Amino acid sequence: MADQTTDSTSPAALVSTSSPKKEISNPVDSKLTELSESRAELLNRIQNLKQDLQSWRGKLDTQVQVYREELSGLKKTLNLEVEQLREEFKDLKTTLNQQQDDVSASLKSLGLQDKSKDTEGQMDKKSEAKEENVEARLSDDENAKEAEH
């Protein structure tokens, strides 16, 4: 009978009694393992998405900077061209005024002074109105382009 007592406390007897507990804990352990693996995968995906987002932001920032520099260059070029046009219009106005003065002097010498003064006054008003229109359009274009930025 002593042999039977030692048999019930032997390791073989303990394994057989602990087997049902392992069977119960195995499904829990397997679920915990699956959840841990799933969590690791999700964390890896999140990390990859974060890296992709940072890369995308970096590329976008670079592209925005390039476009800003390009627009800045275009704006400077446009401003220079507008300034050149203004100078050309001033030169043209000066030339036209000089020609008009020459014509008036010629008409004066021919004795047609009265008509030339009327014509001269009308031409001055027309040229001033045209110049104001051109300057207003150029200013409007500049303002519109600055508003876009």
Summarize this structure as a short list of keywords or feature phrases:
mainly alpha; 3 helices; disordered N terminus
Descriptive overview:
Mean pLDDT is 80; it is low at 1-18. The chain has helices at 2-8, 11-110, 113-148. α2 packs antiparallel against α3 (113-148). The radius of gyration is 46 Å and the shape is rod-shaped. The chain is mainly alpha-helical and 149 residues long. The chain contains three helices and no strands.
Tell me about the largest β-sheet.
none
Mean pLDDT: 80
User: How many helices?
Assistant: 3
Please tally the β strands and state the result.
Answer: 0
End-to-end distance, in Å? 100 Å
Strand content is under 5%
Radius of gyration: 46 Å
| Share of helix, binned | over 70%
- Could you say which structural class the secondary elements and strand pairing correspond to? mainly alpha
- Contiguous uncertain segments of 5+ residues: 1-18
Which overall shape is indicated by the principal axes computed on the Cα atoms? rod-shaped
Secondary-structure element series:
HHH
